[in-house]
Specification:
This protein is 27% helix and 29% strand. It has helices spanning 35-51, 58-71, 130-133, 145-153, and strands spanning 7-13, 24-30, 33-34, 73-74, 90-98, 108-114, 118-125, 141-144, 156-157. The chain has a 5-stranded antiparallel sheet with strand order 4-5-6-7-8. It has a 4-stranded mixed sheet with strand order 3-2-1-9.
Amino acid sequence: MPPVNAIEFFHYPWAESPTYPDYLVWGIRVDGTDLRALVGEATYPLWRAELAGEFDDEAEDERETAEQARTQHDGLGVPEFEDQHFRTQGDAVPLLGCSCGIWGCWPLMAKVTVTPAAVTWSAFRQPYREEEWGELALGPYEFPRDAYEAAVCAPLVLSEDPLPLP
């Protein structure tokens, strides 16, 4: 079966760094959807279970859960992660980092498999919730190798985060 997913890499300014407006991070879209949004959808029920009853009422529980799922990740810093990083094969390759700017604080990890025809991302997980959450309900995604290489070598440069905080 041929690869079926589309990939897009881009750079955008890290919103949490107003002191360094030129600091860019890697963004990723899979089939046109920001990877951070896909992860938010996959982790929402996990956060919901974890945060249930933490707040004063059901509406606040809902808001806080949605906010946690939406804001848990940001892109990896361009200065620290060159395009070669996204060509790395392994069982625990970081694709997103923590929204605080320290990528290892709350990374999104995935198994990355590279063949002559395709690049596959699978077995997504959050290493600090691995026992509680296990493998996330995300992917696998399989990209044509030539399209993947072209996208990672020529990322779009955006003037702002395409998935801004509410």
